[in-house]
Write a structure and sequence with these properties.
The chain has 351 residues and is an alpha/beta fold. The chain is built from 14 helices and 9 strands. Strand 2 (132-136), helix 8 and strand 3 form a beta-alpha-beta unit. The structure holds adenosine-5'-triphosphate and magnesium ion.
């Protein structure tokens, strides 16, 4: 007998079989249906979103085949292919902009170093010749502009309709709500629809130019805030950041689930504040032993890097000089990112 029926809610099916998110996504029932609506049945979703065009018999057949055999249908597009998180329309939106890949940095818990990892990826990839931009999707915090020492108000572009992103010392274009506020300390308390509107504009109404990667710093958590941002952008892949504390690690499993529900891919996990380097060269794991292996098992994604607690990091991000940071662990992080990222070689500019 079929395990999955059209009267079951989409979210209950995805909760039980997370990989079915990819099957739903293929039938045009992606993000909105599974992650936001907890009450929508498969039948309601299929008749609503697909404009009645979703072939519910085929959908049910694929879902039950997966529930019975654990095998995804052969002809399913790869999770990071065009029908990934953003869907076809969103991908088109990115290509039109000249932005090749949008990568989001996410964490379950606040304060684990998400903004730092977003910043470091941008710096490391720029050093390797990629064209990078940073979109601060955490509209309540000043982390990104502060870390890069960017304060300039984004000037209006010559077309009079869009904004030019201010650039860091090293030339990285940065866009943040913080740059638009009269006072850096001013907190933004906005509702979801306003946030998605702002984020979408940060993407479409900002002159990013040609980019290999646009790195997006997401708000903390695994709830509405990061979800709102992710749904507003054509995201290709997600980098997850955590610290070794058991609690933080547990929340990561929630984040993994969220990204899966969106039909997306976790590119890798970064374990931040993993240890302190002692004067004798040993590593002191102040936040407890590494959870790396556990995370890899939980997420089925590689451990992309392990960063120590480094006073230099804290100092440089406070004074806006993150672009001067260097360490072997940082190098390794960027190399590992490139080994799993959707684009592995810098574009040689055409003269
Ligand atoms: N490995 C590290 N070594 C030293 N300081 C660090 C390290 N990682 C992060 N920090 C510092 O810890 C603070 C929090 O980091 P960060 O702002 O990147 O976290 P976050 O996850 O983005 O936080 P939020 O949830 O508030 O957005 C910052 O002051 C940062 O400079
Ligand atoms: Mg942050």
């Amino acid at each position: 007998m079929a395990q999955i029926t059209p009267e079951m809610t989409i979210s209950s099916v995805v909760d039980r079989w997370p990989d079915t998110a990819r099957i739903f996504a293929r039938y045009g029932l992606s993000c909105a249906s599974c992650a936001i609506s907890k009450s929508e049945t498969i039948r309601a979703g299929a008749t609503g979103h697909g404009g009645g065009r979703v072939n519910i018999e085929e959908l049910m057949r694929d879902l039950n085949h997966f529930a019975d055999s654990g095998k995804l249908p052969d002809n399913l597009p790869a999770a990071n292919a065009t029908a990934g998180m953003g869907g076809m329309k969103m991908r088109g939106m990115a290509e039109q902009k000249g932005v090749k890949h949008v990568i989001a940095v996410m964490s379950g818990k606040g304060g684990v170093g998400k903004s730092l990892v977003a910043g470091l990826l941008a710096v490391g990839l720029t050093r390797r010749g990629f064209r990078i931009g940073v979109l601060d999707g955490d509209i309540t915090g000043p982390s990104i502009p502060r870390m890069f020492g960017v304060r300039e108000k984004p000037p209006v572009a010559p077309d009079g309709k869009s904004l030019m992103p201010p650039r860091s010392r090293g030339g990285i274009p940065v866009m943040s709500m913080n740059l638009l506020l009269p006072d850096e300390g001013e907190a933004v308390i906005w509702r979801g629809p306003m946030v998605s509107g702002a984020i979408r504009q940060f993407f479409s109404d900002v002159q990013w130019g040609e980019l290999d990667y646009l790195i997006v710093d997401l708000p903390p958590g695994t709830s509405d805030a990061p979800l709102t941002v992710m749904q507003a952008l054509p995201i290709d892949g997600v980098v997850l950041v955590t610290t070794p504390q058991a609690l933080a690690a547990m929340i990561v499993t929630k984040a993994v689930k969220l990204v899966k529900q969106l039909g997306g891919d976790i590119l890798g996990i970064v374990e931040n504040m993993a240890y302190v380097r002692m004067p004798d060269g040993s590593q002191n794991e102040v936040f407890g032993p590494s959870q790396g292996l556990k995370l890899v098992i939980a997420s089925n994604a590689p451990l992309m890097g392990k960063l120590p607690i480094d006073p230099e990091i804290a100092h440089l991000s406070d004074v806006g000089q993150i672009e001067s940071y260097d360490s072997p662990e940082f190098e390794e992080l960027v190399n590992n990112f490139l080994s799993v990222a959707p684009e592995k070689h810098p574009q040689v500019p055409v003269a």
